[in-house]
Amino acid sequence: MANFLAEPNQDGSLNLTDALGRRILLYTKSEPSGRKADLILRRPIDRAVASSPITLAFALRLNDSVRILDRFVGIVNAQEAHLVLPDLVGRFRSGQIQNAENLRALRSMQYDVIFTFAYPHDNPSLAGALRHYNLPYATIDAWYEPSLFERIRWMEFIGCFFGVEDEARRTIDKIREDVDRTASEMKSDSRKVLWFTDFQGYQFVTGGNSWVAHEISRLGSRVVTQDSGACGSAETSREWIGNKMGDADVMVFTMVRPSMQHISSMYPEIVGSPAYKNNRVFGFGVGYWQEGAYAPERWFRELATILQPGKGDLRDLRIFSQVAGK
What we know:
Blueprint: E1 5-8, E2 14-17, E3 23-27, E4 39-42, E5 48-50, H1 53-63, E6 72-76, H2 86-94, E7 98-100, H3 103-108, E8 113-117, H4 125-132, E9 137-140, H5 148-152, H6 154-162, H7 165-185, E10 192-199, E11 202-206, H8 211-218, E12 222-223, E13 233-236, H9 238-244, E14 250-256, H10 260-266, H11 274-277, E15 281-284, H12 288-294, H13 296-306, E16 320-322
């Protein structure tokens, strides 16, 4: 179950509880009297701001069936390079979606709600700043969900603000059917997957209770991790990652189109790994985060392909990227 609640009331209003436990009341006609909430809005809302390109990707997917993207007027601290999906790039270039470079610019915008995120989980810094300035916000928790399905259910949360939650649920059901079909057709032999990053002096591996680990498990493999209970990423060390490379049949280095030269300069141990010897080292494509959120069924299908040889053409990868340079 995704980390939000949506409870309809007899008067047609809707009670939402977001990722931080904040109570949000959405009404359609007149505001209910005597009702208390952290945020009260009339829906459908007219103007929304996203704090993440992933939120815009979810909105774009819903836009395939119901027109809600026109109501997104801004994004917090983004660049054109972050918006790789053509429709979003076009809106950014034209000014339909404006960039709020800082909190001062954000406070000057006219909007009903900002969709923010719960990162880091124990003390979300952006949500804290929005609360400090008394700005209207709702918090999404897609990064820390334990499965792909819980992750994409945040489309329904977003849809509630626009009165299109039923359409959102139908979209999610279609994605679920596609993912289930891929899982039944492309389940792999058991492989050990080392999914890690090394950036600006920090090293992380995906947690054992993350949505990434869950989907790898659905396909018959398992992640190599330092923390089997972590929902998002687990902090580790370069030494730990290097020591585990000898166990890895598949590696995913979470960088856009990394080179083997770059990875091996930090991890010379990689040349002795099964993943290296069998050309099963991967990075991210340019559109990994946005395209993976917009088309999670494609993300899952490509994941199935990289986990096993012979079940798909690696030349067709778009969300992931095979690392060359062995």
